[in-house]
């Protein structure tokens, strides 16, 4: 096995970073890794041979709350409306969601403003579970993710089918915090983070693409961090 493909533990990361201690800033601040730490991570490759840190990004130590119009955050009031090109349009409640085979996922997330959080830990339900349950019609080609207060984003069905696309309700082993989209957010790790709709309230399947909040304001529709697709 190629060395670069080895799972990166904190210990071998420290060795890569030259053995120097990672200095941790004040809690709650937006703390960047040092340049040498970033270079060490950037030298690493993902199993698919793409660089671990996409071009133009730098790694940070914590998820940064980026704001947005928050929903109630409450699990018992939460409803997810599955609509559009499906055999069985339906409302999924939190308890029902938890019954759909939860998975743990460790992944990197990349905000288009330039920060990357490596090895973030999430628990949630694969989008494919929702698709199975609702019976997606053959004409569906796009998935529109609907957040609270009209925030939306859009992905092609081919992206929604990836096994790392989940509806997340836990982060770092705890219930998702309100600023990060509680109780449930979408997580599309291989696209810039604006596609990961917080306070998720609906999933709509469509035969036509519908650029979302940022996509219709000049940000890239395809949003692939490794191709550095930031703006259209
Ligand atoms: N509903 C909703 N979802 C959203 C946003 C938003 O404003 N509203 N912002 C997006 C952007 S630009 C980013 S970078 C991430 C930030 O997620 P975080 O606040 O958990 O870091 O959420 C995305 N999802
Ligand atoms: Mo963002």
How does this model look, in words?
- The chain is an alpha+beta fold and 232 residues long.
- It has one domain: Oxidoreductase, molybdopterin-binding domain (Sulfite Oxidase, Chain A, domain 2), CATH 3.90.420.
- The protein has helices spanning 10-16, 35-42, 94-98, 127-134, 157-160, and strands at 58-60, 79-84, 90-93, 103-110, 115-126, 142-147, 152-156, 166-171, 174-175, 185-187, 200-206.
- Strands 1, 4, 5, 8, 9 and 10 form a 6-stranded mixed β-sheet that branches. The chain has a 5-stranded mixed β-sheet with strand order 3-2-11-6-7.
- The structure holds ligand MTE and molybdenum atom (MO).
- The ligand Nc1nc2c(c(=O)[nH]1)N[C@H]1C(S)=C(S)[C@@H](COP(=O)(O)O)O[C@H]1N2 is lined by residues 63-66, 68, 111, 147-148, 151, 179-180, 193-194, 196-199.
Order of helices and strands: HHEEEHEEHEEHEEEE
Named once each, the bound ligands are: the ligand Nc1nc2c(c(=O)[nH]1)N[C@H]1C(S)=C(S)[C@@H](COP(=O)(O)O)O[C@H]1N2, molybdenum atom
Tell me which CATH architecture applies here: Alpha-Beta Complex
CATH topology description: Sulfite Oxidase, Chain A, domain 2
The structure class reads alpha+beta
Q: What distance separates the N and C termini?
A: 38 Å
Tally of individual domains? 1
On the 0 to 100 scale, the average pLDDT is 88
Net shape: globular
How large is the radius of gyration?
18 Å
* Low-confidence parts: 1-28
Give the class-level CATH name: Alpha Beta
CATH-level-4 superfamily name: Oxidoreductase, molybdopterin-binding domain
- The helix tally amounts to 5
Strand content: 25-35%
Number of DSSP strands? Answer: 11
Helix percent band: 10-25%
Largest sheet: 6 strands, mixed
């Amino acid at each position: 096995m190629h060395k670069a493909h080895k799972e990166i533990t904190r210990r071998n990361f420290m060795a890569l970073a030259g053995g120097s201690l990672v200095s941790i800033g004040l809690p709650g601040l937006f703390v960047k890794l040092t340049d040498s730490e970033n270079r060490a991570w950037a030298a690493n490759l993902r199993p698919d041979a793409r660089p671990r840190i996409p071009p133009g990004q730098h790694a940070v130590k914590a998820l940064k709350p980026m704001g947005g119009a928050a929903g109630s955050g409450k699990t018992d009031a939460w409803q997810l409306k599955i609509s559009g090109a499906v055999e069985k349009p339906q409302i999924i409640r939190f308890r029902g969601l938890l019954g759909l085979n939860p998975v743990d996922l460790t992944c990197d997330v990349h905000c288009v403003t330039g920060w990357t959080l490596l090895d973030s830990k999430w628990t949630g339900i694969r989008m494919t579970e929702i698709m199975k349950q609702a019976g997606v019609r053959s004409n569906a080609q796009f998935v529109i993710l609907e957040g609270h207060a009209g925030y939306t984003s859009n992905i092609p069905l081919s992206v929604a089918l990836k096994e790392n696309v989940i509806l997340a309700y836990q982060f770092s082993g705890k219930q998702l915090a309100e600023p990060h989209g509680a109780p449930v957010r979408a997580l599309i790790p291989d696209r810039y983070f604006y596609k990961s709709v917080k306070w998720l309230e609906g999933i709509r399947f469509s035969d036509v693409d519908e650029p979302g909040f940022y996509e219709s304001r000049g940000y890239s529709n395809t949003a692939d961090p490794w191709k550095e697709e930031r703006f259209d």
